[in-house]
Design brief:
The protein is of the alpha+beta class. The chain folds into 2 domains: 2-67 and 184-200, 3-Layer(aba) Sandwich (Ribosomal Protein L9, domain 1), CATH 3.40.5.10; 69-182, Ribosomal Protein L9, domain 2. 30% of the residues lie in helices and 27% in strands. The protein is built from 5 helices and 12 strands. The protein has helices at 23-30, 41-67, 69-73, 95-106, 149-156, and strands at residues 2-5, 17-20, 36-38, 77-80, 88-93, 121-123, 125-134, 137-146, 161-163, 166-168, 170-172, 193-194. It has a 4-stranded antiparallel β-sheet, covered by helices on one side. A 4-stranded mixed β-sheet has the order 4-8-7-11, with helices on both faces. Strands 5-6 form a two-stranded antiparallel sheet. Strand 7 and strand 8 form a beta hairpin. The longest helix is centred in the first third of the chain and has 27 residues, at 41-67. The protein is elongated. The N and C termini lie close together (11 Å). The relative contact order is 0.19.
């Protein structure tokens, strides 16, 4: 499906770009969240009429994100979870869990998609990840996961935890991309055009 982006979307494109995306991605995420409009001749004209307003909204969102940087950097993302004898969690810590805790400890609201975790955390340890407060505002954070607060305090102090014969130390979570500005959901594809190409409008 072809849509017009009404805000900057990671790797997909900038505000005003006309892009091809999966139909499900458009219908389930972009369109209902006001992040894009269907690519039609009428919507091209509508976008041009609202372009200044949409651009101003994007700038305001970026400023809000920048104002939250320190709160996110200083947030204590400490997760108490049950684990087995080897340090493997019973369950996992997901992007949704991290987003929820960020709201609780720093009063900063983000969607789970803004947490650049790569894959769920499945073991005790300290993990590096990033929070995309805005496509242009990326904040590195550290997530500590252990069975007790004492174990978390040990990890924060740089100490290792021993489970049987296995030592658990600080872990750098492998990311799927270099930065959020070049990330896109696996279900989407993009071929960016400019909105000026009105002759192809449906």
């Amino acid at each position: 499906m072809k849509v017009i982006l009404t805000e900057k979307i990671t790797k997909l494109g900038n505000i005003g770009d006309a892009v091809e995306v999966k139909t499900g991605y458009a219908r389930n995420y972009l369109l209902p969240n006001g992040k894009a409009m269907r690519y039609t001749r009428e919507n091209i004209a509508l976008f041009e009429a609202k372009k200044a307003e949409l651009t101003a909204r994007q700038e305001a969102a970026k400023k809000t994100a920048e104002s939250n940087v320190d709160a996110v950097k200083n947030a204590k993302l400490h997760m108490i979870r049950q684990a087995g004898d080897t340090g493997q969690l019973y369950g996992s810590v997901s992007t949704r869990d991290i987003a929820r805790m960020l709201k609780e400890v720093a009063n900063v609201s983000v969607e789970s998609a803004q947490v650049m975790l790569g894959a769920p955390i499945k073991s005790v340890g300290a993990f590096d990840t990033k929070i995309a407060l805005h496509p242009d505002v990326i904040v590195p954070v550290k997530v500590y996961v252990a069975q007790t607060q004492d174990e978390i305090d040990a990890l924060v102090a740089g100490k290792s935890l021993t489970f049987g014969t296995k030592k658990v130390e600080e872990t750098v979570e492998e990311e799927t991309t270099e930065e959020v500005a070049t990330t896109e959901p696996a279900t989407e594809t993009a071929e960016t055009e400019t909105v000026d190409e009105t002759t192809d409008a449906e």
